[in-house]
Design a protein that fits this description.
This protein has 304 residues and is mainly beta. The chain is built from three helices and 26 strands. The strands form four sheets. Strands 1, 2, 4, 15, 17, 19, 20, 22, 23, 25 and 26 form an eleven-stranded mixed beta sheet that branches. A six-stranded parallel beta sheet has the order 3-14-16-18-21-24.
């Protein structure tokens, strides 16, 4: 029996060692990378070897315990990605990691010039292809000033120059005298969610900005381990900066949540959140919403 037990321990040790050895670093560079490369190096070193172009492709390559390392190129990563199941999970020794290095994931797209229609006076409008949750209009990369105009007929009279409103599935924007909307750098929330974590364990996301998505910046559903968000900024998203739902356990450390549409932080179901050393603003919406028995600690104390 001792011999068998010793053999079992040895086998487990070898399996653990091999698993650790197989864990990889996968490099992504949305300027110099190419999804036809192998992702094993941060720069192009030889034919076929170098960084990938998208996080989406890196996740297809990835296995449990891997680390995806983003280059901060000054150009946003315009993607909506999902981490799902055991292949995107890790453990306390080797968590599955997305290291952002200060990169930005951005859910906006430029309003097509041909999409604008003249409405009345200096007011123009366009209809986004998706209408779920709060649409956002961006001017020069930042949220434009929104006016709570209620009806189509009242929009033209109420909007001030460079203000916008949404009603009836249309976004209305008032230009300055003598200008057209095509003369502004205008964008809208095109992608639904920045990063979705579904049924994963032992995931760390660090040093990343997630902004401009139509629903949530990050949505964690049955993410345990706990999942860790470290030095993540989630801002200017239509619904929540971070949504923690299902049986998720999430540590939010040194993060910033601001400018999100419905709440900065949402917890539902059996979710448990532990926030420490973080900045959560209530300027645009409540700091947090807690539903259906979910639990939230702020710097070790129950949230109220």
């Amino acid at each position: 029996m001792r011999l068998i037990a010793g053999f079992a321990v040895a086998v487990c040790s070898v399996v653990a060692l091999v698993s650790g050895t197989l864990a990889r670093d996968i490099y992504v560079d949305n300027v110099a990378g190419d999804d036809l490369l192998d992702g094993t190096q941060p720069t192009n070193t030889s034919p076929g070897i170098g960084p990938l172009h998208t996080v989406t492709r890196a996740l297809r390559f990835a296995a449990a315990g891997d680390r995806i390392i983003l280059a901060s190129t000054g150009e946003p990563y315009r993607e909506s990605v999902s981490l799902v199941g055991s292949r995107h999970s890790g453990n306390p020794v080797r968590p599955f990691t997305i290291e952002g290095n200060g990169a930005v994931m951005d859910g906006t797209a430029a309003v097509p010039p041909e999409a604008w229609q003249w409405f009345r006076g200096d007011v123009f409008r366009f209809q986004p292809p998706k209408k779920q949750f709060q649409q956002l209009l961006f001017l020069d990369g930042l949220p434009a000033v929104r006016h709570p105009a209620g009806t189509q007929d009242g929009v033209a009279a109420q909007l001030q120059p460079k203000e916008w409103a949404e009603t009836g599935g249309w976004i209305y924007f008032r230009v300055e005298e003598g200008r057209l909307p095509q003369q502004y750098a205008l964008g809208y929330s095109a992608w639904p969610v920045g990063i979705t974590l579904y049924k994963v364990e032992g995931v760390v996301i660090s040093n990343l900005v997630v902004q401009g998505f139509r629903i949530d910046g990050l949505n964690l559903n049955d993410a345990t381990g706990p999942a860790v968000l470290y030095n993540v900024t989630s801002r200017f998203n239509g619904h929540s900066g971070v949504a923690i739902v299902g049986a998720s356990e999430v540590d939010i450390q040194s993060c910033t949540l601001e400018g999100n549409g419905k709440s900065q932080l949402l917890l539902e179901g059996y979710a448990e959140g532990n926030v420490s050393n973080s900045q959560i603003s209530d300027a645009s919406s409540p700091k947090w919403e807690i539903h259906n028995g979910a639990k939230l600690l702020i710097d070790g104390k129950p949230a109220r």
